[in-house]
């Protein structure tokens, strides 16, 4: 591709400057690598309903229901 050759070419229609800007913006956003979403922090309420520190193994289901 030469420096004089355009990156985009309108094949049909006559887009306005705003329409071309929206198209270029959409292409730029889509061409960027997707960032991994940050893990959501669990609320205190959600953490309170889950047993903490119970390891998997024999008797783990029983230990998960016992008070700490």
Automatic annotation (TrEMBL):
GO terms for molecular function: acetyl-CoA carboxylase activity; propionyl-CoA carboxylase activity. Residues 38-68 are annotated as: Disordered. It comes from the Bacteria. This is Acyl-CoA carboxylase subunit epsilon.
């Amino acid at each position: 591709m030469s420096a004089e050759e355009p990156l985009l070419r309108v094949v049909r229609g006559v887009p306005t400057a705003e329409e071309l800007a929206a198209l270029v913006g959409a292409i730029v956003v889509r061409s960027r690598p997707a960032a991994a979403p940050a893990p959501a922090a669990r609320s205190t309420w959600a953490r309170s309903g889950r047993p903490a520190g119970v390891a998997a193994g024999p008797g783990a289901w029983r230990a998960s229901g016992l008070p700490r």
